[in-house]
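Hi C.,

You asked whether I'd gotten around to modeling the 179-residue construct. I have! Everything is below, sequence then structure, no commentary in between.
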Amino acid sequence: MALIIPVRGFNPEIGRDTFLAENATIIGDVVMGEECSVWFNTVIRGDVNSIRIGNRVNIQDGSVLHTLYQKSTIEIGNDVSIGHNVTIHGAKIHDYALIGMGAVVMDDAEVGEGALVAAGSVVLSRTKIGPNELWGGAPAKFIKMVDPETSRELNKKIAHNYLMYSRWYTHPDAPNELD
């Protein structure tokens, strides 16, 4: 069972049909939507400020979400994919965005709807990534625009695949495809 820790009078709120890996840790002022998945060795640490997560968000293995005390918060929209070993520190991630494996997104950065942050990128504090933009590198820079429909479908597919994967753990007879 995941480690869910209240702190400073805040109890994490987890939406229905959300999968929490048995060694995931969710702490404090965290509100998570429905049909999310929080994978192995992930830490969502809402001890110093709030973390708000939409519906059908997958936060993959080894990721860390945290904020700055009394300064930054995390807001994540719907159908967002956070890749393996990602660090998000006090940033805003809009609907249908994808944060690639090993990326770092720093305080007060904003990732627009349908945007893609390439694996291994470092998005510096206060960086604003627009909708449907692809950014990559360390520090991350604009690479190109991505077709909005292609981006939305790709990110929606990944988010829905992770919903399917999570059901393999919670419903042993679940099909290998979602309806």
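If it helps when you're writing up: The chain is about 15% helix and 35% strand.

Thanks,
B.
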